[in-house]
Amino acid sequence: MEAAFAELPLALFTTLAPLGAGALLAMALVGLVAPSALAGEGASRALGVRGLVALAVAAVGFAASLFHLATPAHAPYVLANVGSSPLSNEIAAGVAFLVVGAVFCALLLFGRPQVAALTAACVVMVAVALAFGWFAGQAYVMRTIASWNTVLVPVQVVGFMLLEGAILAQVLLRGGALDVAAGDARARRALACLVVVGAVVGALAFAAQVMAVQGMVTPLVSGAQLLAEVGVFLWLSVVLLLAAGGLAAVTALKGLGQVPAGLALALAVAGVFIARLVFYATQVSAGL
C-alpha cells in the first residue's frame, strides 16, 4: 500500500469531490420527490445553506487534486483538450458541477422558487452531478493501464458518490425548517434507495475490478502479488461500504437522528478512501 500513498492527493479528490457532488444530487432528488416539503421560503433558504456546505466539501476535494500537479498554476491548461482527453473532460465536468451547484444554492438562498422552477433546477443539478461522477471515473479508463481499462471504474465512482453523498445529505437535511429526512416519507425512501444502490453498485464494481487484477502479469508486475498485498484492505473497504449503506438505509427509513447518520457517514468515507488507495495500489500498466 506504500505506493498508493504517492497518489494521496488523487485519493482525497476522488473521495471528497464525489462526496459533495453526491450530497447535492441527493438534496436535489429530495426536491424532486417531495417538492412541497421545500416549497416554503424557510426550507428553501435552509436547503441553500446546507447545499453550500456540500459544495464546500467538493471544493476541498478539487483543491486536494492540485497537489498532484507539478505546477498547480498550470491547472487551467488541463481544459485545453476537452472532448479528446478523458482528464480534460473530467475537469470540465467538475467545473460545470461547481458552477451549477453555486447557481443552485444561490437560487435557493436568494430567490423564492416556485415548484416548477425548483423542479427544473433539481433536474439539472442531478444530471450535472451524475455527469461529474461518471467523467471522474472515466478519466482513469485507458488502454495503457490494463487494470483500469474497464467500465467498472466509472461505475464504482458513481456508486461511491451516491452512497457517501446520500448519507451526507441525511446529516445535512436535519433540523429547523429543513427536517426533511424525518418528516417526509418520500424523501426518506429516496435517500434509502440511493444509499442501498450506491453501496451495492460501488462495492461490487470495485471488488470485481480489483479482483480481475489477479490474472494480470507483466515482466515486472504480478497482479496476484499486488492483490495479495492489499487483500485485507480490499475486503475491509467492502465491509465498510456495505455496513454504511445498511445503517444509512435504516436511519433514513426510520427517521433516526444525526448520530447514526454521522456514524454511517464515517464508515462510508473511510470505506471509499481505503477503496481508492487499493485502486491505486493495484495499478498494472500494459507497457511494463
TrEMBL record:
Keyword set, alphabetical order: Membrane, Transmembrane, Transmembrane helix
PANTHER family: ANAEROBIC DIMETHYL SULFOXIDE REDUCTASE CHAIN C, ANAEROBIC DIMETHYL SULFOXIDE REDUCTASE CHAIN YNFH
Protein name: Dimethyl sulfoxide reductase anchor subunit
UniProt keyword annotation of Transmembrane helix present: yes
GO biological process, alphabetically ordered: anaerobic electron transport chain
TM region(s), chain numbering: 20-40, 52-71, 91-110, 117-137, 157-178, 190-212, 232-253, 260-281
Listed Pfam families: DmsC
GO cellular component: dimethyl sulfoxide reductase complex; plasma membrane
GO MF annotation list: dimethyl sulfoxide reductase activity
Top-level division of the source organism's lineage: Bacteria
Native organism: Berryella wangjianweii
